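Standup notes
- HV: blocked on the assembly model, inputs below
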Amino acid sequence: EAQVTQNPRYLITVTGKKLTVTCSQNMNHEYMSWYRQDPGLGLRQIYYSMNVEVTDKGDVPEGYKVSRKEKRNFPLILESPSPNQTSLYFCASRGHGGYTFGSGTRLTVV
Amino acid sequence: GENVEQHPSTLSVQEGDSAVIKCTYSDSASNYFPWYKQELGKRPQLIIDIRSNVGEKKDQRIAVTLNKTAKHFSLHITETQPEDSAVYFCAASIKGAQKLVFGQGTRLTINP
């Protein structure tokens, strides 16, 4: 089954403790992206990647890092999480049929 | 950069009636306009999309219209059903969908 897999689904962490949210797709898509979803703001792009080793900032990249060492994986890294990064995060990959989103990661930073 | 405005933020209609959600975009270079439906606690899922060389597209009870001159596009749902209740997002992409910019979302409630 074609899918985008994110882990974990839920995460509660403390301010300053580094964390990684993993994202993997099995559709051989070149393009992948991370979004955060906040009430009243829709989905805002954090980072995107056009291909392996090619990444670029989206609209809200501050406080986040990404890497694209393999085509299928696109992890999101929060080096020093802060409470304003509490949000619902979605990974997505894009093919001919449009974007496919992962199931989401609800992150709470206390 | 691109900015997408979506209205209304909430919409409540009686089952069987039609619902219309409207979006405007700012960048005339945008050429791809998808609509996503997000049910409670789930991921956004593409329900219909339109490209700038087309003015209207239909898929059963769902249709999207695009006015390039006015830079706005709309989602039309006819004969609404309870399962249509969800949050709907419009989006616009710039230069071949390298970046997808979303509207703020519309919470649609279908009243039985």
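- HV (later): unblocked. Chain A touches chain B at residues 31, 33, 35, 40-45, 48, 50, 58-59, 90, 94, 97-99, 101-104 (CB under 8 Å). The longest strand of chain A covers residues 42-51.
- Next: hand off to the docking folks.
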